[in-house]
Design goal:
With 259 residues, this protein is an alpha+beta fold. The chain has one domain: Bactericidal permeability-increasing protein, domain 1 (Super Roll), CATH 3.15.10. 27% of the residues lie in helices and 41% in strands. The chain has 4 helices and 6 strands. Strands 1, 2, 3, 4, 5 and 6 form a 6-stranded antiparallel β-sheet that branches. The C terminus is likely disordered.
Length: 259
């Protein structure tokens, strides 16, 4: 392998591990809870090493690493989402804001596969529970009854399988290779979803509007999740992309150990 190729491979391997938590000041001894063993490019367990390092990083950087400019990974904040669901007797428009997506730090990395030639990394993860909460406003009608409400909501996703696909760009200037994540695709697929909404409705709720909406949401739980999923995944992908490149920006020179 040429020198340039080996540097590119090193860059991709390090980026794939989210640069492995090199958050130790110069001249100090890494602490066991922060140190992550480098992944050797030609090692027979390269993918297993990457998987271990990603899992470790998710736990270590859960609340962020402020000393090196890395924001929190858990929870992730999503500004706003909109969902228009149903027609006829059941037609509801939801607007969600100040949304938090929690549970990534408890993920187990099932597998990781690095393709150095294509500058691509595929990761498969599993978590027992993800939680989404925030504020919402709702308007429309359920069973021909008008609804106008707002308040807090919470969504629980259980037995969650996730897939990540990372694509990298590399650039060599003055014999130094720089790497960035160009695309970070996220897919989150739960086995079950449960919705809980504050029952604070404008006007009277004596006709059971709140109960009707809870019933409607949970009887159509996965269908509703799949409706909102494309927009949610797009926003999560942007947030993960930002976090990954924060690591790369903070550790641009931490790539020389694989030849």
């Amino acid at each position: 392998m040429s020198t340039t190729a080996s540097r590119v491979a090193a860059a991709l391997t390090c980026a794939a591990c989210l640069l492995q938590v090199w958050a130790v000041p110069a001249g100090t001894t890494p602490q066991p809870e922060n140190a992550v063993a480098p992944c050797q490019l030609n090692s027979t367990d390269l993918n297993q090493c990457i998987a271990r390092n990603i899992e470790h990083f998710l736990q270590t950087a859960k609340h962020g690493l402020s000393e090196v400019g890395i924001d929190a990974l858990d929870p992730l904040a999503v500004k706003e989402l909109e969902l228009i669901k149903g027609k006829g007797k059941v037609a509801v428009t939801f607007e969600f804001h100040d949304v938090r997506f929690k549970g990534f730090s408890n993920s187990e990395v099932n597998s990781a596969r690095m393709n150095v030639n294509d500058k691509k990394l595929e990761v498969s993860l599993r978590a027992p529970v993800y939680e989404i909460d925030g504020q919402y406003t709702c308007s429309g009608g359920v069973y021909e009854l008008p609804i106008s409400s707002n308040g807090h909501f919470a969504v629980t996703l259980t037995d969650v399988t996730s897939a990540w696909m990372l694509y990298f760009l590399t650039k060599t200037t003055n014999n130094e290779t720089q790497v960035a994540v160009n695309r970070f695709i996220v897919d989150v697929s739960p086995s079950n979803v449960v919705y809980r909404f504050d029952k604070k409705f404008d006007g009277e709720n004596s006709l059971g509007i709140g109960e009707a909406m809870d019933e409607f949401m949970n009887e159509n739980a996965l269908e509703i999740y799949n409706d909102i999923k494309p927009q949610l995944m797009s926003m999560l992908s942007e947030l993960f992309l930002e976090r990954a490149n924060q690591v790369l920006i903070n550790f641009p020179g931490a790539l020389p150990f694989i030849e």
